[in-house]
Amino acid sequence: MTTGTGQVERLADRARLTVSFQGAGTTRAEAVTALNARLGDVEPAMQVVGVRVASRLLSVSEQWEEKNRRVGSVAQQRYVLVFRDLTQLPDLVGRLAALEPAELDGPHWLLADSTDARREAQGAALTDARVTAEGYATRSLGAQLGPLVKLVDQGGGFQPRMMAYGGGQAVDVSNLSLEPELVSVSATCETTWHLL
After folding, report:
1. pLDDT tens digits along 125-157
2. Rounded to an integer, what distance in angstroms lies between the CA atom of residue 183 and that of residue 119?
3. What is the model's pLDDT at position 168?
4. 21: which strand partners?
5. CB of 92 closer than 8 Å to CB of 85
6. What is the edge-to-edge ordering of all strands in the sheet holding 70-83?
7. In terms of Cα–Cα distance, which of 1, 4, 50, 2 is closest to 155?
8. Residue 159, H or E segment
9. What are phi and psi of 68, to 5 degrees?
10. Hey, is 99 helix, strand or coil?
11. Are 164 and 173 a contacting pair, CB within 8 Å?
12. How far is residue 148's CA from residue 106's CA, in Å, rounded to a whole number?
């Protein structure tokens, strides 16, 4: 049995950005009311062609001090944005940063379709496993490598290269390098071969 690995890189054509906003209050109801007021400018800012709000997640919780004393509540709305048009990224990041989010995470670079890249990585993994098996067969055993008996996919996947950063007018983001980056697609396989 030999193991092979393959990896290819493609320039990202999608990006994912996570941003969250918070509101605080003495009670949970006050925290939600404060958050609702904050989101008045947020929702319109995210209505951009080529950008989709993939999810919205609301959480409301109590805040406690170390001595188990309740000190208030926090409400948070977390958005996951998917950019199909990467030219919109710098402008929207600047506008969202100007709205003073509690968290701004990304971009996380993605591929719209990874099928070709995955197949190429799988081919490279199988070639790697075969070269290793041939080395064992010919150099170590004095035999020839026969046909493939078993192939087990060990997985792989994406390894996006990530970049992290982070109201009124949009914040200048011109030096944040928000250009698409390479996405690494990998595959690993285990192979078993007949010897001749």
Report:
1. 889 988 988 888 888 788 888 888 888 888 765
2. 15
3. 52
4. 77
5. no
6. 51-64, 70-83, 14-25, 103-110
7. 4
8. strand 145-160
9. 55, 40
10. coil
11. no
12. 43
